[in-house]
Write a structure and sequence with these properties.
The complex is a heterodimer of chains A (111) and B (114). Chain A has 111 residues and is mainly beta. Helix content of chain A is 0%, strand content 56%. Chain A is globular. Chain B is mainly β and 114 residues long. Chain B has strands spanning 4-7, 10-13, 19-25, 31-37, 43-49, 56-57, 65-67, 73-78, 87-94, 104-105, 109-113. In chain B, the strands form two sheets. In chain B, strands 2, 4, 5, 6, 9, 10 and 11 form a seven-stranded mixed β-sheet that branches. Chain B has a four-stranded antiparallel β-sheet with strand order 1-3-8-7, with no helix packed on it. Chain B is globular, with a radius of gyration of 13 Å. Classes of the chains: A mainly beta (111), B mainly beta (114).
Chain lengths: 111, 114
């Protein structure tokens, strides 16, 4: 059974600071997705990572995938308040079609 | 661009009542999914479908049934609602063989069972 763990689960940071969210998973996979969810809203896709060493960047967010370590990171650079949200990673089984989600990281960026 | 549409958006039920949640997508996607989201537990897969007329169990299928009679629709049924089924339900879809694309999510259905 595929297990996905995120840490930290809660993150409070100041504007302008950098931080990293970690996503570990338990079985072989080379397909990992990051989503953002604002309170009371749906999930918005941020990144799709499909191979070992994949790195994607959008604005102040950068995601990477190390399939050998079964680890993905979401790095936040110079955080701003608008980044406050819950971030989920999700891993697709190698057999395809199903995603397993992490518990989510609730990020709060304070002025 | 409708994408994935869920109906209804909110519902309150009494224990033992039944209801059906409807998910419709206009992207011609083969794969459709039903998840539930509870505080601190992320999203958990209830049932999914890889094509019209097919369904499969996910991580937490008990107490739910599904049907995929048409490619564009995926229905989630609660035959006898229980308070433990109070949750936010999300539907998602994706095209077959499109791992390079993320799953597209609906806006959710907030369901309370009293």
């Amino acid at each position: 059974e595929l297990k996905v763990e995120q840490n930290p689960l809660f993150l409070s940071m100041q504007e302008g600071k950098n931080y990293t969210i970690y996503c570990n998973y338990s079985t072989t996979s080379d397909r990992l997705y990051w989503y953002r969810q604002d309170p009371g809203k749906s999930l918005e896709s941020l990144f799709v990572l499909l191979s070992n060493g994949a790195v994607k960047q959008e604005g102040r967010l950068m995601a990477s995938l190390d399939t050998k370590a079964r680890l993905s990171t979401l790095h936040i650079t110079a955080a701003v308040h608008d980044l406050s949200a819950t971030y989920f990673c999700a891993v697709e089984e190698t057999s395809g079609s199903r995603l397993t989600f992490g518990e989510g990281t609730q990020l709060t960026v304070n002025p | 661009n409708a994408g994935v549409t869920q109906t209804p958006k909110f519902r309150v039920l009494k224990t033992g009542q039944s209801m059906t949640l409807l998910c419709a997508q206009d992207m011609n996607h083969e794969y459709m999914y039903w998840y539930r989201q509870d505080p601190g537990m992320g999203l958990r897969l209830i049932h999914y479908s890889v094509g019209e007329g097919t369904t499969a169990k996910g991580e937490v299928p008990d107490g739910y049934n599904v049907s995929r009679l048409k490619k564009q629709n995926f229905l989630l049924g609660l035959e006898s609602a229980a308070p433990s089924q109070t949750s936010v339900y999300f539907c998602a879809s994706r095209g077959a063989g499109q791992s390079h694309q993320p799953q597209h999510f609906g806006d959710g259905t907030r369901l309370s069972i009293l």
